Predict the 3D structure of the following.
Amino acid sequence: MKQVAAVAGVSLATVSRVVNGGPSVRPDLAARVRDAVDLLGYRHNHTASSLRRADRLSASIGLIFEDVANPFFSAVHRGVEDVARGRGVLTLAGSSDELPERERELAESLTARRVDGLIIAPAATDHSYLQRDRAAGLALVFVDRPASFIDADVVLTDNAGGAREAVSHLIAHGHKRIAFLGDRPELHTATERLRGYRDALARHGIREEVMLIRSGHDRPYDLVEELLRLDDPPTALFTSQNLITIAAVHAIHDLRLQRKVAHVGFDDVALADVVEPGLTVMAQDPRALGRSAAELLFSRLDGYDGPSRRIVLPTTLIERGSGELAPGGRR
Amino acid sequence: MKQVAAVAGVSLATVSRVVNGGPSVRPDLAARVRDAVDLLGYRHNHTASSLRRADRLSASIGLIFEDVANPFFSAVHRGVEDVARGRGVLTLAGSSDELPERERELAESLTARRVDGLIIAPAATDHSYLQRDRAAGLALVFVDRPASFIDADVVLTDNAGGAREAVSHLIAHGHKRIAFLGDRPELHTATERLRGYRDALARHGIREEVMLIRSGHDRPYDLVEELLRLDDPPTALFTSQNLITIAAVHAIHDLRLQRKVAHVGFDDVALADVVEPGLTVMAQDPRALGRSAAELLFSRLDGYDGPSRRIVLPTTLIERGSGELAPGGRR
DNA sequence: CTGTCAAGAGGAAACGTTTACTTGACTTGT
DNA sequence: ACAAGTCAAGTAAACGTTTCCTCTTGACAG
């Protein structure tokens, strides 16, 4: 920049004004500066700039997910990017692999780079360590799961409602023995979906059976096999997470029961409509999740200073066949 | 930091030394500094630090993909992250949506933030604009597709070889009328896979048929339908991209031809083994692609200054049934 | 003419760090 | 006991910008 100033024969201040589209600089000078910029191949240094600038904004936000390669989270990522792009804001993403420690490291790494905000799908159980950064102006939004020990904006899927609707759908098709296969119970989404399942049963006067409620199994495939080989097996399955759903589809097909046992999954998966019968799912909208989270974040950066908000996005039932089988396998 | 120094009763330099694990500082002073840090909730400012530091490294790298939400690229992303994490390096990712202009904007945004390196799955046809940044020390690696008009490290999948092998596999099962469905021909991967297809036919003395070679159709589903309704339809399909593969599976199933027409896809997709028959694919290893790219990048940052390297990763044939059907549909 | 004002430009301080250089107190070898 | 060397700590300059403040110039009103 100094060189540019020298070549253009102006002061540093003027170069800065031109580079930032500053208000009052004579057209001929501006042109000279621009020529010098091109000539020297000057590249603006955004980090140095934001160090001194009044707003102190880095125009970048951090994302912390379980795994950036999980289709669910990469869709959230994209949703965030969609709205960040409009503001010239870049996204830094990292995978926590569901490890609280790793999540914290990432958060610290990101705040050390002075990101303007953080969007987190929380793994850690305690987020109070972010309190200080927030006091220092960091915008904070949680997505997919609420945070603990810190009061912040959050955007969620209607897990309980979606699960309730999914299970009610099975009940409407005549099922009474419906198994619940869930993720590890320490996950908020898992317990919420279980709550929805219970709710649906209760509303229809169906008694829960302990044998049919299974959470946090590490080999879902085996679990499904076991369930379907019971003396009195469930007539329908509700799988409450995408990887479990996929494992269940495998198991059901391997046992050749795909026309006998009904199945609804939470969260949509690719090729769900090519499987025979098509897989009925309660779909989420991860991209919208990301967009909403980003909007909450930017509203904070734009000065909103009210109480924290909680957005809950609805789910959509997609009927493809597997969820519409009657008990015993008739359609 | 000034406050920390004041509270601990030491100079700024000493605080800096402690914060950076500097070599020679008396233990009691170091302890006092650390106490002050905790007390004040001091957060290191990495950007200010890298501005002055000798290495001038931001410990972050930029990623530019077509779409961070595409499972292929999100897996590459994760591969990069795997190796970056080991070095405490963060990844900034952006989606170009295959628009050269958007790619360039992203690249400029990233270099303005002084990332140490850039990993790009190129959309643009001319990357010479990066020449200057590279001269200034930016490490540069291209992934999935080679760059144009700039000589840089690149890591690719063996597109031609994989396609050749896939098509040979179909030929080995007795097929002679094999259709090729490809992506837009301006994409490097698309032309390479077509080359592999042609190669396989030539090696086995099969004449190409123009009618059976289709590239860059925007409605692959309709295209497959059209092909299969020809008077003399192909007995096998080779779909050379994941989205096209999925569309083809849909079309084949809708026409109830899944046991009549053989099908091999390039790039693996979820649930491919639950479809009936299972979908045979030539799988890539996108995560390894990302890891290799990151390794090339870091070797540059570690001082490697030799000629640019080109890594080509092999593909793996996964036989699941659809590729092993004989012409006419017998197994 | 003088005085007021606005616009345009420059000088220098500041942002939060690191680091080259300096200082001072010890240690060591003779 | 003294020169030389070592080590720990401090001072101040520097990194690449932006911004506050001042200065000059010219226009215009009284």
User: Anything to note?
Assistant: Chain B has a mean pLDDT of 94. Residues 1-2, 12-13, 16-17, 19-20, 44-54 of chain B lie near DNA strand C (CB under 10 Å from a C1'). Chain B touches chain A through 51 residues (CB under 8 Å). The CA atoms of residues 70 and 248 of chain B lie 18 Å apart.
